[in-house]
Design brief:
Blueprint: H1 27-33, H2 59-66, H3 85-98, E1 102-106, H4 109-120, E2 126-130, H5 135-149, E3 152-156, H6 161-167, E4 173-179, H7 191-200, E5 204-208, E6 225-229, E7 243-247, H8 249-255, H9 262-266, H10 272-281, H11 285-305, E8 310-311, H12 321-327, E9 337-341, H13 345-358, E10 363-364, E11 374-377, H14 388-394, E12 400-404, H15 411-427
Parallel strand pairs: 2-3, 2-4, 4-5, 5-6, 10-11
Antiparallel strand pairs: 1-7, 6-7, 8-9, 9-12, 11-12
Organism: Kalanchoe fedtschenkoi
Pfam families: Cys_Met_Meta_PP
GO cellular component, one term: cytoplasm
Length: 435
């Protein structure tokens, strides 16, 4: 029951694309070029296929569907845990955005990540992963998978290519896993070089691109699989939990296999009503990302001038500024997240309290990609699954404030609110700036 090609083998080989073969594309243009579904009665919006199960016209058709002869590629559907037309439509657009052959959408970002890992790693397998990861992913790799599956992970600094090469054991390591822009330290991965190192040893590369949709296209840079927490920028409304797996059609087919497919058998199914809502948001994702990135750049530049310890890949003093500039899709900026290192959790909390309760600059909340600015102290929130030693190794300061920069209101209005909060912090003696 294939996604694209019923002759797919269900396995895929790591990409052999070299850095000299890298191509850039405009994700927004690719989305426009994807197939547009019209509604049942000619509506400009597609209809929602809410059925859990699907009928057939002839008895023998069902046997042909279960044997894999007929599938969604020919508009034959069995059951919505397997394939659903509305979810499939959203998947096509996310695949177009990422420049991959196929994609499939799931009920959460963590379900996308865990399903890919379980599909590609057998019991007793080995993974090499970045030491700077979202806390939930780190916990999955460091605690859950060793206990439940005997899959062990070696964590490394992926900016040190030699250490990555040393950590990968040819014939044993199955995956190299990292984030395109790390959460929360904003380290930019050298995707082409990391892919080259992994592929030279026959290892597949899985990249979490949640922080950089539209900005980076990891599959075009050598990644084999791209995963997303669609809950974040792609949704944009902080009202939906969803995920996506993007990669070769053979991978998606294997993950939907009736006997061996992680997505099919573990069941992280996306509701078609959720898929419809997300499909309506994809067309303006490019516009939203450009504004998120422009605001983040403006704030980071102004904060830097005030003498604050700001981390943002768009600043020229960021260690990977030139790398991101060379890899990013043109005109989308450097990402919508910036970090402000307040050194201690106490100072971080005071600042966030002023920003939310004093000047209404943003909200103290986890997640990202919302139209309002969201702030959290990573060490005590989204990275709290990591030990103090692991956070230190990942470069997460106890006072690191992660800001997902929103675009609501004018830039001048919002900067004035931020500036007033900083002035109050200075008046209280919490820190000194160039006021």
């Amino acid at each position: 029951m294939a996604f694209v090609d019923s002759s797919s083998s269900g396995s895929f080989m790591p990409s052999k694309k070299s850095p000299s073969m890298l191509t850039w594309h405009d994700p927004a243009a690719s989305i426009v070029a994807a197939r547009h579904e019209f509604g049942e009665h000619g509506g400009v919006n597609m209809s929602i296929e809410a059925s859990a199960t699907f009928t057939v016209m002839e008895p023998e058709t069902m046997h042909r569907m279960f044997s894999g002869e007929l599938g969604p590629d020919r508009d034959f559907f069995i059951y919505s845990r397997h394939f659903n037309p509305t979810v499939l439509n959203l998947s096509r657009h996310i695949a177009a955005m990422e420049g991959t052959e196929a994609a499939y959408c799931t009920a959460s970002g963590m379900s996308a990540i865990s399903s890919v890992i379980l599909q590609l790693c057998a019991t007793g397998g080995h993974i090499v992963a970045s030491q700077a990861l979202y806390g939930g992913t780190h916990a999955l790799l460091s605690h859950f998978l060793p206990r439940s599956c005997g899959i062990h992970t070696t964590f490394v600094d992926v900016s040190d290519l030699e250490k990555v090469d040393e950590a990968i054991i040819q014939g044993k390591t199955s995956l190299l896993y990292f984030e395109s822009i790390s959460n929360p330290t904003l380290t930019v991965a050298n995707i082409p070089e990391l892919a080259r190192i992994a592929h030279d040893k026959g290892v597949k590369v899985v990249v979490d691109n949640t922080f950089a949709p539209m900005v980076l296209s990891p599959a075009r840079l050598g990644a084999d699989v791209v995963v997303h927490s669609v809950s974040k920028y792609i949704s944009g409304g902080a009202d939906i939990i969803a995920g996506a797996v993007c990669g070769p059609a053979s991978l998606v087919n294997s993950m939907m296999d009736l006997q061996q497919g992680a997505l099919m058998l573990l069941g992280p199914t996306m509701n078609p009503k959720v898929a419809f809502e997300l499909a309506e948001r994809i067309p303006h994702l490019g516009l939203r990302m450009k504004e998120h990135c422009a605001r983040a750049m403006a704030y980071a530049t102004k904060m830097k001038k005030l003498g604050l310890k700001v981390i943002y890949p768009g600043l020229e003093d960021h260690p990977q500024h030139n790398l991101l500039k060379s890899l990013a899709n043109k005109e989308y900026g450097f990402g919508g997240i910036l970090c402000l290192d307040m050194e201690t959790e106490e100072k971080a909390n005071k600042l966030m309290g002023q920003l939310q309760n004093g000047t209404q600059f943003g909200f103290m909340a986890v997640s990202l990609g919302y139209y309002e600015t969201l702030m959290s102290c990573s060490g005590s929130s989204t990275s709290s699954e990591m030990s103090e030693e692991e956070r230190a190794q990942a470069g997460i300061s106890p006072g690191l404030v992660r800001m997902s920069v929103g675009y609501n209101g004018t830039l001048e209005q919002r900067w004035s609110q931020l500036e007033r909060a900083l002035a109050k912090m200075q008046d209280s003696g919490s820190f000194n700036t160039k006021y």
